[in-house]
């Protein structure tokens, strides 16, 4: 009798874990809801970002929209880090933190595992037409939007055939025409971005 009770409890526990996993998978496969008042920003549009105005933009800029509280952003860290390692000498990488919590530049760099420039400017998302995390925006050397979208069809970035951000970077680096992407690249998935509130950039 005791063994039956234990087996039943184990069955219930495993069923609960499976149900939770299935539910989270289902949730993360749904497109992020477009916020009210969203203004679409088309490809090839020039984006002037005041936070970057002091830099000499003589090479492409990769904007990584990141929220430490977003599970999708956390799953994406190893993939983003691999992009930084591969392209850091030819592309300027910038992490744009979208959070209503306070973080320092060093805290974000430690989470990512790379010493990359970090900005706390919620307005950058509006300028680029971004409303979820993680999202990638690639600006060419003339500050035009070359790509805005997801990193991968898989939230674990495990599908090498759908590494959209990497494919876009490769095409830009090789001066090829922009590849044609499917809806899984261009329709926002992940966590809807929160307002940044009073979060200010700190260099502690």
Structural features:
alpha/beta, Glutaredoxin, 5-stranded mixed β-sheet, 6 helices, 14% strand
Write the layout of secondary structure elements.
Blueprint: H1 2-28, E1 61-66, H2 71-87, E2 92-97, H3 105-112, E3 117-119, H4 123-128, E4 132-133, E5 135-139, E6 145-149, H5 164-173, H6 183-186, E7 191-192
Parallel strand pairs: 1-2, 2-3
Antiparallel strand pairs: 1-5, 4-7, 5-6
How would a textbook summarize the main sheet? Answer: 5 strands, mixed
- CATH C-level class is Alpha Beta
Portion in strands: 5-15%
Number of strands: 7
By CATH, the topology is Glutaredoxin
Provide the domain count.
1
- Helix percentage: 25-40%
CATH architecture: 3-Layer(aba) Sandwich
Number of helical runs? Answer: 6
The secondary-structure class comes to: alpha/beta
Helix-strand sequence: HEHEHEHEEEHHE
Oligomer: single chain
Sum up the overall morphology in one term. Answer: elongated
Please mark out the parts with pLDDT under 50 across 5 or more consecutive residues, or reply none: 20-24, 196-204
Strand numbers in spatial order across the main sheet: 3-2-1-5-6
What does this structure look like?
A five-stranded mixed sheet has the order 3-2-1-5-6. The chain has a two-stranded antiparallel ribbon with strand order 4-7. The chain has helices at residues 2-28, 71-87, 105-112, 123-128, 164-173, 183-186, and strands spanning 61-66, 92-97, 117-119, 132-133, 135-139, 145-149, 191-192. The protein has one domain (50-192): Glutaredoxin (3-Layer(aba) Sandwich), CATH 3.40.30.10. Helix content is 35%, strand content 14%. The protein has 204 residues and is of the alpha/beta class. Mean pLDDT is 83; it is low at 20-24 and 196-204. The protein has six helices and seven strands.
